[in-house]
Design brief:
Strand order of the largest sheet: 1-2
Distance between the termini: 111 Å
Number of helices: 10
Helix content: 55-70%
Largest sheet: 2 strands, antiparallel
Structural class: mainly alpha
Number of strands: 2
Length: 288
C-alpha cells in the first residue's frame, strides 16, 4: 500500500507524465474520427441500397466493407500507439484462408468483423461525450485559474442555489478561486486519464480476437493425454537369481564358501592375465 506522501506526489505528478498527454490526444481525436466514420457509413449505405438494381450498389457495399475493416484496423493501432493497450490481432487464430472466397467466408465468420462495426458506430456518441468532458472540465479550470486577472473587470460568477451566486470580485476571492481552479485542473487530468483507460479497454474488447478457450479444443485428446501422464508405471517383475546350493552344508556356510571361491577365482584370473597364459608342452614328435 502506498504511503500518503506517495499518493500526493502521484496526484500532482499526473501533469508531468507523458501518457497523460497521449490520452488527451486520443480523446481529442475521438470526436472528429467518430464523425467521419458516421458520415462514411451513412453516405455509403444511402448510395448502395438504391444502386443495387443496376448492380453498382454491390460494388459500393464492397467499398464500404473495405473501409469498415480499414477504419477498425486504424482504431486498433491508435489504441496501441496512444493508449499503450495490448490488443490481440483482429484475424481469427489458425491457418490463413486461401483464395478470395475463403477470405470472404472467414471475414463473415470472424466475431471481430461485427464487433468492429458496432465499435465504429458507437465511436461517434463516445467522441461527443469525450469532447464534452474535455471542454467542460477545461473551461471550469480555466475560469478559476484566470480569476486573478479578470476579477476587477469581468468577475467570475458561481451559481450556488439557482438564486444566489458567488461573484469573485476581490483579490482574496480571486486567490481562493485560483487555488481551487488549480486543484480542479489536476482532478480533471485524472478524470480524462480514466476516460481514456475505459476507451482503451472498450477498444481491446471490440477490436481483438481473444485466444480460443479450452472448450474449443479437442477435449477427448486432452483428457487422454492427461490420463497417460497420471497413470502409474507398472513395475516389471524381476526373476530371482539362480542359487547353487552344495549338499550337506548350511545355507550360511554355502554363501560364505561361494563368495570365497568367487574371490579366489577372480584373484587367479587377474594373476593369469598379468603373467600371460602358459604355453602348452610340445609333443615328442615335434621334439624329435
Amino acid at each position: 500500500m502506498q504511503t500518503t506522501p506517495n499518493q500526493i506526489a502521484r496526484f500532482f505528478n499526473v501533469i508531468a507524465r507523458g501518457q497523460t498527454w497521449l490520452n488527451l490526444l486520443y480523446l481529442l481525436l475521438a470526436f472528429p474520427l467518430g464523425l467521419a466514420y458516421f458520415i462514411f457509413f451513412v453516405v455509403g449505405i444511402s448510395l448502395a441500397i438504391p444502386l443495387m438494381f443496376i448492380l453498382v450498389g454491390f460494388a459500393v457495399l464492397a467499398i464500404v466493407g473495405l473501409g469498415w475493416w480499414a477504419f477498425a484496423s486504424f482504431e486498433r493501432l491508435l489504441a496501441i500507439w496512444l493508449l499503450k493497450m495490448e490488443i490481440p490481432p483482429m484475424s481469427k487464430p489458425g491457418p490463413k484462408p486461401e483464395g478470395a472466397w475463403e477470405t470472404f467466408v472467414s471475414l463473415l465468420s470472424n466475431p471481430v468483423t461485427w464487433k468492429s462495426l458496432l465499435y465504429l458506430l458507437v465511436k461517434f456518441p463516445l467522441g461527443i461525450f469525450s469532447f464534452v468532458m474535455l471542454v467542460v472540465l477545461g473551461a471550469i479550470s480555466l475560469a478559476f485559474l484566470t480569476a486573478p486577472l479578470t476579477f476587477w473587470w469581468n468577475p467570475v460568477r458561481v451559481d450556488l442555489t439557482g438564486v444566489r451566486y458567488w461573484a469573485i470580485d476581490t483579490p482574496v476571492e480571486a486567490a481562493v478561486a485560483f487555488i481551487f481552479g488549480l486543484l480542479f485542473l489536476f482532478v480533471s487530468f485524472h478524470v480524462w486519464n480514466y476516460l481514456a483507460y475505459v476507451s482503451g479497454v472498450f477498444a481491446r474488447l471490440m477490436l481483438g480476437n481473444e485466444p480460443p478457450k479450452l472448450s474449443e479444443y479437442d477435449m477427448s485428446g486432452i483428457l487422454k493425454e492427461a490420463e497417460d501422464l497420471i497413470r502409474p508405471v507398472e513395475e516389471t517383475p524381476v526373476a530371482p537369481e539362480p542359487r547353487v546350493e552344495a549338499m550337506g552344508q548350511p545355507e550360511g556356510e554355502q554363501g560364505a564358501e561361494g563368495l570365497g571361491g568367487v574371490a579366489e577365482m577372480s584373484e587367479e584370473d587377474e594373476i593369469t592375465e598379468e603373467l600371460g597364459a602358459p604355453e602348452p608342452p610340445k609333443s615328442d614328435q615335434e621334439n624329435g
